[in-house]
Design brief:
Strand order of the largest sheet: 4-3-2-5-6-10-9
Radius of gyration: 18 Å
Order of helices and strands: HEHHHHEHEHEEHEEEHEE
Strand content: 15-25%
Helix content: 25-40%
Largest sheet: 7 strands, mixed
Structural class: alpha/beta
Distance between the termini: 24 Å
């Protein structure tokens, strides 16, 4: 297979009618109520972590949901996907958790409300070596309200654009052991994904791990979608295109990464079909784990 985006994309570009990042709450991915998404496990996690009584939890979550939508109306916000901690779904998570418990530096890129950092703390890791960054100003402040831990969480949050080599992330250059990209890469085109990963590589060192997930496709391809008042390209991976992309990242950055990739059916991530069926029957979740070996 040629390692060019046009070959990796298989069937090429396809235009969708999904208008991403609109405040219109009639879109398919917005739900006013969490409903079945608040499982017993999620209810217990949030109630235990925050100290909020279970019968007072839902009004608290509704308030956070509405205010997060006002900050950035992403589909993941509309569909309440800040409630589950998807990093724990990843096959790499048990190894990652043990490393962080032993003092490894962890960076959550595109951290949103910081839910994955809090879950790691709840699972026994210290927050002193944890960092979160996001391009949306206001998310982690709202996260402090969601989790009621402004005085206890020691993780550091940064406003940063992952494409900007001179952003606040430069303070972490060469020091990040584990970098998590949850629902981030699929927001970008093939070349933008390569550029983003190449920009993040300097934060790593030999032995570092990058892992995460994003919307994938049965056969990886580029999509043109409506985003605000413009058209934007977004690449959805299959296992082969994920491998090809990391080969390009290795070559462009002068490093070498060993990569595992997998495609999961959406039902393994989401309880409510409304949260994904608008994407279409060929949509999958694309998982990756990349370890730097050179």
């Amino acid at each position: 297979m040629a390692d060019e985006q046009s070959s990796a994309a298989g069937a090429g570009e396809q235009t969708t009618n999904n208008l991403i990042e609109t405040q219109d709450t009639s879109v398919k991915w917005y739900d006013e109520e969490p409903g079945a998404r608040v499982t017993r496990e999620i209810r217990e996690f949030y109630s235990t972590y925050t100290g909020i009584l279970e019968d007072e939890l839902l009004p608290h979550l509704r308030s956070i949901h509405k205010r997060a939508w006002d900050i950035r109306p992403y589909p993941c916000i509309g569909a309440w996907n800040f409630l589950p901690c998807f990093s724990t779904y990843m096959p790499a998570y048990p190894k990652v958790l043990e490393r962080v418990k032993k003092g490894a530096t962890f960076l959550d890129t595109g951290c949103c409300l910081g839910q994955d950092l809090r879950k790691m703390v709840a699972n026994g890791a210290l927050s002193t070596h944890m960092y979160g960054c996001d391009i949306a100003d206001g998310f982690w402040e709202l996260g402090y309200e969601l989790f009621q831990d402004n005085d206890t969480l020691q993780a550091k949050f940064m406003l940063a654009d992952i494409f900007d080599l001179d952003s606040s992330l430069k303070t972490l250059r060469g020091s990040v052991d584990i970098l998590y990209l949850g629902a981030v890469l699929h927001l970008f085109s093939w070349q933008e994904q390569v550029d983003a990963l190449v920009a993040l590589v300097p934060l790593s060192k030999v032995g570092s791990t990058m892992f995460g997930f994003g919307v994938g496709w049965v056969n990886g391809r580029e999509f043109e979608t409506k985003w605000k008042n413009a058209t934007k390209s977004m690449f959805y991976h299959d296992n082969e295109t994920m491998q090809v992309m990391w080969q390009k990242v290795s070559k462009a950055s002068g490093t070498k990464w060993e990569v595992k990739a997998d495609l999961w059916k959406m039902e393994r991530f989401f309880i409510v079909s409304q949260d994904w069926d608008w994407l279409g029957p060929d949509a999958r979740m694309s998982l990756f784990e990349a370890m730097r070996v050179e």
